Amino acid sequence: MNPSQYFFLLFVGTFCAYGLWKSGSLSWQSSTVHAKASIQFDLSIPASSPSSHRFSNKTSKRTSNKNHRKYRGVVSKYMLELYHRRSDLDIVRALQPIHVSGPTDDGARILVFSVPPIDPDEALEVAELLGVVGSILRVRLDDASTSESCKSRRDDGWRAFNVTSAVAMRNSGIVRLRVYGKVGYHPCGDGPILLLSYSKVRKKRPRRSVQEEDLDEGDGPRKRRKNSCRRRSLYVDFALIAYDEWVVAPPGYEAYQCSGKCFYPFGDHLSPTKHAIVQTLVHGALQGVDSGSKPVGRACCVPTRLAPTSLLYLDASGTLTYQYGYEDMVVAECGCR
């Protein structure tokens, strides 16, 4: 082998050795990077850790609060005020106009409302077109037979125009009002609305044919047991039972519930019926006796008087309605029946 071939082979060998060393170095660095990445991943918070659960719960609560209200549309500011001041009006419905015409020759706009039929248990007291003070200047019935403007009243920052005659004497479910002023688009719930105020038709409750009387305990002495039947707390969250789809306010209320056992003799505050007294006596008499018949239970602790509460809600037609006395929502008294 001559010297030139020797130096050539030495150069090739050196170059290959350098290449092998360089690739090994890169491989080692790559392994180090993967190791570091692996360590960083392993030190992260596991998905099942308590901190992760707390974060998940907070997120779900925010999502729940965001989706708490499922109803759609702008809620009238006036109706919200009416609810919060607990007006004693029986029922108030707020109707949005189904059509607003362009300006007429005299500068008015025709507001068209679809009025629902009156419930047999309700009586229309007054109908008013309501708007923010300064937005509605004058209201006339869209009827050629009269040119008289409707009378108005001030209610804080609102002005209401009496249109009862137009609603009461309508031939169909449509009422048209000629309105002067700014009655355009109001996206914030302060646009013109037709307020319909109703009173409930009071019905006399039939008197019981048999008065409730206490029965004697019997011949033998009985051990007096304490009745635990009474009213207890029960807060109802409307979102929990999907009532927030139609109830605008409140978000929930104290409904109360009756619980406990009924023992003879009953206290006067439990207002037991004769049947409840007899059933409880039979229940006690059959204790420990194998009569071969079906067991007889004692009287139950149930609501004996219910009270109303105030609600702002959307009725079946989607009309925003305030009702001062939404019946049978709150347990007022408990008794044995």
Say what the CATH topology of the largest domain is. Jelly Rolls
CATH top level label of the largest domain: Mainly Beta
Task: State the helicity in percent bands.
Answer: 10-25%
Identify low-pLDDT runs: 24-68, 208-224
Strand order of the largest sheet: 6-7-4-9-1-16-15-12
Structural class: alpha+beta
For the CA atoms, what is the radius of gyration? 39 Å
Major β-sheet profile: 8 strands, antiparallel
- Number of distinct helices: 5
The fraction of residues assigned to DSSP E strands is 25-35%
Shape: flat
Mean pLDDT: 75
Counted up, domains total 2
Question: What is the CATH architecture term of the largest domain?
Answer: Sandwich
Secondary structure: number of strands: 16
Order of helices and strands: HHHEEEEEEEHEEEEEEEHEE
Distance between the termini: 122 Å
Main location: secreted
GO molecular function: cytokine activity; growth factor activity
Family: Belongs to the TGF-beta family.
Subcellular location: Secreted
How would you summarize what this structure contains?
The protein has 337 residues and is α+β, with helices and mostly antiparallel strands. Helix content is 24%, strand content 30%.
